[in-house]
Amino acid sequence: MTEEGRTAVDEQFPGEFLPGTDIEVFNPQIERGRIRHALFDFDGTISLVREGWQRIMCEMMTRTILAAPDAEDREQVRREVDDLIARTTGRQTIDQMAMLADEVRARGGEPRSAEQYKAEYLDDLARVVEDRREALRSGAASPDEHTVPGVLDAIDWLADRGVVLHIASGTDRDAVVTEAELLGIAHCFATIHGALPDADAFSKAAVVEELADIAPGPQLVSFGDGVVEMRHSAEVGAIAVGVASDEERREGVDDWKRGRLIEAGADMIVPDLREYERLLRWLFAEED
């Protein structure tokens, strides 16, 4: 984004930075010092093993829609697909593929099933993901290389404080568990939730609501880079920390994510978790 574009984003969503940090606070009325449970999204919040999934999904959806009889030109289809993915980041992949089928049908095509589209997308993604998994298995890559900066230390910090940790991801649960194990963090989490073969058996909303019953209001903090977890966390009164991670560069703010996370109700925005200690000490009311 250009400097002019960033200025426009800042003017639309003004926040206050914790002094000397890149931590933005949009809700200064957060009730601090009561956190007992923490919920993390996985891809883009903890893990970068699937970095680039949005691009791969966009390419797959675009070529699928363009094959429909009444499809628009490539540029317009690409814009609409980008918007679809932005609106649904955090939802189960099968839901996104059902929407793809609707888009094909709306353009006069005969769509395949959502399950078939999901299999095609996962085949495309697997070519990238499996190389990264193998690098982690062999030791050719370290977990630090395939995680959002600072998040591993943040997980340790929270665990050391006795906070109960959870993962909820729109990615298939088996894949999340495998990748959490490869990153060396699976044992840190009391629960790991993800998409299941029966799509109705899992939703982030249900996970957030269940945790909010156990740890109501500011006793629950939620970290995520998608609008789904931010919206549901805000709705139940949890502390919603948006992680506007630039997954490709592994530094700085992704302005596209930032704007959408704020619109979804994020109380705070961080570019990553490099400043985890300052962030968490503030949330635990250990410093101003």
Sheet having the most strands? 8 strands, mixed
The SS-based structural class is: alpha/beta
| Molecular shape | globular
As a whole number of angstroms, the C-alpha radius of gyration is 19 Å
Uncertain stretches of 5 or more adjacent residues? 1-9
Question: How much β-strand is present in the residues?
Answer: 5-15%
**H/E topology pattern:** HEEEHHHHHEHEHEHEHEH
Main sheet strand line-up: 1-2-8-7-6-3-4-5
What is the helix content?
A: 40-55%
| Mean pLDDT rating | 92
Helical stretch count?
A: 11
Q: Give the number of DSSP strands.
A: 8
User: Distance between termini?
Assistant: 32 Å
Outline of the structure:
Helix content is 47%, strand content 12%. With 288 residues, the chain is α/β, with parallel strands linked by helices.
What layout of secondary structure does this protein have?
Layout: H1 3-12, E1 16-17, E2 24-25, E3 37-40, H2 53-66, H3 74-88, H4 93-106, H5 114-138, H6 151-160, E4 164-172, H7 173-182, E5 191-195, H8 204-214, E6 220-224, H9 227-235, E7 239-243, H10 255-263, E8 268-270, H11 276-283
Parallel strand pairs: 3-4, 3-6, 4-5, 6-7, 7-8
Antiparallel strand pairs: 1-2, 2-8
Helix pairs in contact: 2-3, 2-5, 4-5, 8-9
